[in-house]
Amino acid sequence: MRTWLCLCWWLATGVGFCEPTTGPESPVAPLIRHVEAHRDGKASWSVDFSALKRDRPALPVGVFDSGIGGLTVMEAILTLDCFNNRTLQPGGDGVPDFAGERFIYFGDQANMPYGNYSARGGTDFLRELIVKDAVFLLGRRYRGPDGARFDKPPVKAIVIACNTATAYGIEDIRAALRAWNLEVPVIGVVEAGARAVSERLPAEGKPGAVAVLATVGTCGSGAYPKTIGRTSGLAGKTVPTVVQQGSVGLAGAIEDNPAFVCAPPASRAVAYLGPAVGRAEAPMVPSLLPAYGFDPKGLLGDPAKPETLQLNSTANYARYDVTMLAENYRKAGGGPTIATVVLGCTHFPIVQAEIADAFARLREFRDATGAQPYRALIAEQVVFVSPAEFTAKELFRELARRRLRAGRDSRQAPVIAGAFVTVPNLKCPAVKLGADGSLDTGYKYGRQAGCPELEDVFCVPMRDAALPLASLAGLARALPVTWSELRLIPARR
Q: What is the pTM of this model?
């Protein structure tokens, strides 16, 4: 596969082959060397180092995610007012904390969702993708209607607005920055989310359990349990019990990915990849159908034949994930009541209401005998933690500490100066597409790290990409400030 992908790039560009790497080096090492070898920023996935030596406080801040879910973090940043902008002390002053700042948003839409790569043996390639996201933000290159353009400003700081990318890639990005001798702060949502949990733990006594709803990749990394344990211990608090549920399809359903939801009647353009009876990575258990309590309007198949059922709404994905989390906790012997739920995927705050409803409904569920098997496991009032606000606070502190703020006296509202996403590169002969025009699932997860020159996706302005209309409509409702900013970008160019 690697040889064919490199051949694809060679055919498209006329440049020599990328040789496979050998030895135990990091899977992102070839990309680090590639960036170092193309310091003018003209090549694919490269950085114009000279542009980063200019007035750094005047540069924008970069925010990236595997898709549009990271816009929830963008909303928190744009609306934050938790500090005095002149004294830098905690306490709002009626002025946005990021007054005068500009932001660049990047969503790797073509390669999302990141959360499924590790389960399919693609961890090395995922790590390379994550560092490429940072390279794009640091560089100036993107794809315009007439070819490559180089008028995107580089960024002075990077926010990883993706839990999976933080879990698998934050240390790779920091290592790459050290190799390139670039002092660019990097803030990740997992660390911020763990601190948010720690702050909410009682000073004394045993805390309630913490549930983490995230992607399979984030949960598989163990990042949240480890980081929550570390931050709680450093704060002198009792480390809570942490239970996790790795969601296979909720993020994809939120973005209207046709592998997870489709418009009725049931005629899928691509194969269904959500929970199903007999699916090892996301088993739908027939005996739990009453507990799931699926809404028939968001379900495909015959309820009398569980093996035919397919989830087809975000509400039903939320009910499935919450039920499996509670059921696995119960089967493991239970423990402290779940009092805190971490929305460990930046997409999930968009459907917090559906997730909260799933917990409340399951707590009251009665089985055929009248028993309530989950009531003692779920608190009557569950606190939801979205790492977004805490990520925004961490960004403010870091910019202030490094003297990178745009201006302490500014009262101008922060703006999104640019927003970009990836789309498949149809000029690359190796690229395989699904019936809906997105990257074929087998191709997407079958790629390998080690060919950093390969450009099988293009980075384009968000307005030039065909994003799911339902997702965009949801953004307009859930993220009004960000939505307004995105609509204003063309007028600023």
A: 0.83
